[in-house]
UniProtKB/TrEMBL annotation:
Protein name, as recorded: SIS domain-containing protein
Record-linked Gene3D superfamilies: Glucose-6-phosphate isomerase like protein, domain 1
Organism name: Thermococcus aggregans
Gene Ontology terms describing biological process: fructose 6-phosphate metabolic process; protein N-linked glycosylation; UDP-N-acetylglucosamine metabolic process
Keyword Transport in annotation: no
Amino acid sequence: MPKFDLITWNKNNYISIGSTNLKEMPPGTNFLLNTNKYETGINSSFIIRKEESTAITAIEGLPKTPLKELSEKLWQIFQSTGSENDFAKRLKDALSRETGAFSIVGYFKEREEEFLIAFSTYRDIFIDQNGESVFLTTINELAPEEVYRLPPNSLAFWSSQKRTFVGTKKKTRISRQFKHRMIREIYETPYVLKRTYFLKDYPSIQLATEMIRNTERIWVVGSGSSLNGGLELQYFLPELDIIAIPAFEFKLHKLSSLDKDDTVVAITQSGNTWGVLEVVKESKKGGANVISITNNPSLGKVTKYSDVIIPILAGYEAAIPATKSFTGTLGVLYLLALTSRKKLGLINDNEMEKRLQNFSDFTNKLPDILPQYETSAKTIAKYLSNLRGGYIISAGMTYPIAVEGALKLKEAAYSHAEPIELEEYLHGPSAALSEDMYNIVIQPCEEFAKKRFLQKFEKFHENLGHFVVIGATQEVQKKAKNTENISLVNIDYSDTMLYPFHAVLFVQLLSYWLGVYNNTPIDFPRGLVKMVEK
Ligand SMILES: N[C@@H]1[C@@H](O)[C@H](O)[C@@H](COP(=O)(O)O)O[C@@H]1O
């Protein structure tokens, strides 16, 4: 009998591998089942225990059927009689009928026979057998160099009698092993957004929308990247009275005037940031509505004080610089804004469908877009590595991305970057530039602001060590006389609401590569923690 770690796990109330403990993990997205060799950690949404050592399933993502029910359904199939092939077929049928972006791995023991299954609707699962152990993961970086790759919508089925996996493709070589968690997590983004897409049918989004519709003022509170992500709601829903404000500032000056017609949207990846908890506790006491958006919906304390909880489906994020959780937050806000616009009669069914389709198309294209962005980010980072710092400038929809970009450049690359609003640049900051500095302009998508940038183009380009322009850069190309110290990054977007996603991914990759060239401890910047508690 092979010795699965899962059996060990089954004897406990929770799963623990290496130093990580499921109880401390946000319900998540990636799982690693087993191994003695790779004690790296599991990040799984839900584990359902049956009686002693009989069944255990780990499900990540967002299937339509509630997780408990889905697990129960699979268990029924295992208990039914029939041949091994029948089991496999019935399982596959049941799983293929399910909608949503999810993956499942399971261990079942029935009539002295043991079975392992793996299935995903939307991503590869990597599988390997190593002597007595079986290894399953969705994180390719954790897999051995040569693994069996299970493509989406196929079922891998292992039985203790046959001792081989049925359904997997031939062994393939994993081409990329990520050096840092930050870059691996950026490359997780397509999966994060694919899961997020299915939030459209999630009850919390509908409830939050209802709350937003019946409210007078909306306050978005958070810190760090969560606050920066929150700024975007003001642009996604410009018709409403929304103010995004640091949690601490809100506590100091707004809490006292809060009333029951107000809604507080608290954004917190960890769900446990002290300043945010202070705000939600007191907002609740004061009778306001509280919506929390968190990557830790089961264990984050923020949920205790929330009327509605919307999960960020990013999964466990290890690197201190937030990347996939930021983009996951944008995804949640995109859906929340769309549903609210629909409810408020600002868009009709067709437009709603079109935007959802755009979002889904974007998630499908993203795996091809990311390496392209990375190639140019890497080249540009090389230029920037000789410079001491600079400005990151934008306006409108992508202004929050300039703010977030400046934070990423500081955290990951120790590059002193300051975010500036496009027009504000002309009111002081331009005076402080020198030849050892850079300007990064995220071209606005609003026509009026686009024109303004072109009109003042020379001003942004003067006295610089390097000038980077991100966006629809064709016009800039015509405008630029001296192209020596300019880098243009063309971004192809048709839906302006998706432009911030493109821009932030590029800026994250740029910060990452600048960190590599500057030789910084990218994943664990000095003096920073993932979560600021009391
Ligand atoms: N270094 C982290 C930031 O990356 C994070 O954005 C912030 C807010 O955390 P949370 O989103 O968990 O509330 O906390 C810390 O400062």
